[in-house]
Amino acid sequence: MRKRTLYAWGVAVVSFVVLMIVTPAIPQSEAYHDFADQREFFGIPNFLNVVSNFPFLVVGLIGLVLCYYGNYFKLSLQGELLGWTCFFVGVAAVAFGSSYYHLKPDDARLVWDRLPVSLLGRFFDDLRPYAIVQFVPCIAIPIMAVLLPPMYTHSTYWLWAAGFYIIAKIEEAADKPIYTWTHHAVSGHTLKHLCAAMVPIFLTLMLVKRTIDLERQSLLVTWKVSWQQYKGKNSEGETCEYKYTAVSVVDS
Questions:
Q1: What is the DSSP letter of 39?
Q2: What is the maximum span of the chain, computed from C-alpha positions, in angstroms?
Q3: If we measure between CA atoms, which residue out of 79, 211, 91, 223 comes closest to residue 146?
Q4: Which DSSP symbol is given to 13?
Q5: Angstrom distance (rounded) from CA 170 to CA 163
Q6: Cβ atoms 176, 188 nearer than 8 A
Q7: How far does Cα 93 stand from its chain's mean position?
């Protein structure tokens, strides 16, 4: 297990370096800060883009409490507690960093919205580190969840989390069109925040529901078995039982 972990980290680092070498630099566009919804309510500029970060704070704090409340998540592997603690601290920190940025969007505040990855990108004046960390997990995590045998049950929640994250990125890209389609009710960036908050929500639900998977069967194998059972059930023909009785014929 330890060797496999080291190999995985080695592959990740090498892949990151290769992508940084073979891909062109991506500078941060000033137009990025020009969000569709810039309305002010209750004296708060960009109100909806600011307050839509509140779910991150709620989920992050709940996750931290459950991590340490009588081991509610039943974390058993070495390093699991530390790992999930860092995760929920990061989720809660998103609420502060993103809200601070959206109060007055500019390059200087964007660093706090994208910590810690943006620090590296800021140093090189390049968005490639941010883009790699944003999009590679969307591909790698679903593949790992489907192909690798899990230690715990409810691994399908990883797929739900990845799906909502992809939707969030689409909404971010369609910020102004969504704002137009909704007749200026809500922008794509606000919906992006709410969809992205569904990622830690699904992972928290996974931690609550999961148990040790004794079979350790990958999702791909599980789906194949379910499909075969479904096909077998539908292919079974109906059996009918017929009884024949002798009828006496009376001559008239």
A1: -
A2: 112
A3: 223
A4: H
A5: 11
A6: yes
A7: 17
Task: Show the 3-state SS of 148-161.
Answer: CCCCECCCHHHHHH
The answer to whether the CB of 27 falls within 8 A of the CB of 126 is yes
CA distance 86 to 108: 25
Amino acid identity, position 122: R
- Identify the CA nearest to 91 among candidates 128, 119, 53: 53
Cis bond before residue 149 (omega within 30° of 0): no
Q: Residue written as tokens 């075969």?
A: 228
Summarised one tens digit per residue, pLDDT across range 159-189 is: 899 899 999 999 999 999 999 999 999 999 9
Cβ atoms < 10 Å from Cβ of 212:
11
Interatomic CA distance for residues 134 and 117, integer angstroms: 9
Nearest by Cα to 168 from 192, 139, 203: 192
Contact call for residues 136 and 64 (beta carbons, < 8 A): no
How many Å apart are CA 86 and CA 91, to the nearest integer?
9
Long-range contacts (CB closer than 8 Å, 24 or more residues apart) made by 219-223: 219/145, 219/146, 219/147, 219/150, 219/155, 219/156, 219/159, 220/146, 220/147, 221/149
Q: Which helix H or strand E contains 117, and what residues bound it?
A: helix 117-124
Strand partners, 41: 44
Q: Residues in the chain, how many? A: 252
**pTM (2 decimals)?**
0.75
Lookup: tokens for 32: 């990025």
> How do residues 182-236 score in pLDDT, each as one tens digit?
999 999 999 999 999 999 999 999 999 988 777 777 777 777 767 777 777 766 5
